[in-house]
Amino acid sequence: xxxxxxxxxxxxxxxxxxxxxxxxxxxxxxxxxxxxxxxxxxxxxxxxxxxxxxxxxxxxxxxxxxxxxxxxxxxxxxxxxxxxxxxxxxxxxxxxxxxxxxxxxxxxxxxxxxxxxxxxxxxxxxxxxxxxxxxxxxxxxxxxxxxxxxxxxxxxxxxxxxxxxxxxxxxxxxxxxxxxxxxxxxxxxxxxxxxxxxxxxxxxxxxxxxxxxxxxxxxxxxxxxxxxxxxxxxxxxxxxxxxxxxxxxxxxxxxxxxxxxxxxxxxxxxxxxxxxxxxxxxxxxxxxxxxxxxxxxxxxxxxxx
Length: 305
Fold this sequence. Notes:
Elements: E1 56-67, E2 70-81, E3 85-89, H1 96-102, E4 113-121, E5 124-125, H2 133-139, E6 140-143, H3 155-165, H4 171-184, H5 188-191, H6 204-217, E7 222-226, H7 234-247, E8 252-256, H8 260-266, E9 269-274, E10 277-283, H9 284-289, H10 294-300
Helix pairs in contact: 3-4, 3-6, 4-6, 6-7
């Protein structure tokens, strides 16, 4: 399942080509003025498709997601470019997190969840009948809003738990992957002398980077981040943002954030959601400086949300 050959320590990531036919194995998944009334969603501005030379990580086709009778996502069409950072913004309850979780089928863990439409990853339908969702989640990693290191595991065990669950036992390989993952998460220098200490003993910002290292250890092809800095102080937030910049040369990153300044800092493309609908998608600079849709302009200028 994983290439366990010894390699020279190197921050460059090597991954085998994505294949949904892989056998699934379990893996652990870190002003005072009167407000302007919020507008009702109108027609979405035409989404800017990636250029011909740009690869597409996800091709979302007419996606709708329901929780019981409640429709959380409404007929979304979107192409997310590969090897770049895409931010998803919008007010609370607009469907940002549901859209993100649909990209690795995490929303299916909620009872009553169902969907219509398609999400293609490198041409393969993530929801095809023969696709095991465990395989999808192994290839599309997730870092959650609240850091969630395993409380009974040490720092090193937290990073390596996914590999161990996939049957990797080579000690030299695991030691190498541990250091590589912690270095990629910009955490190695801070914890290298304390790897046997509990992961929960780290600061909040360190715990979040530990969860990022855990996600990276199994070498996913895409990394999803659901408001990863919402509970962090400015210093810890800056470190995570620096990490996102470093990762985008080798990973596709999709991040949900309430912080529009953060979206402007870290992403190349931004999608604005409102009341379950994709209102506008395009280059981040355009979305914030010259949006095509009046609703987008109202949101990014702070008139609602």
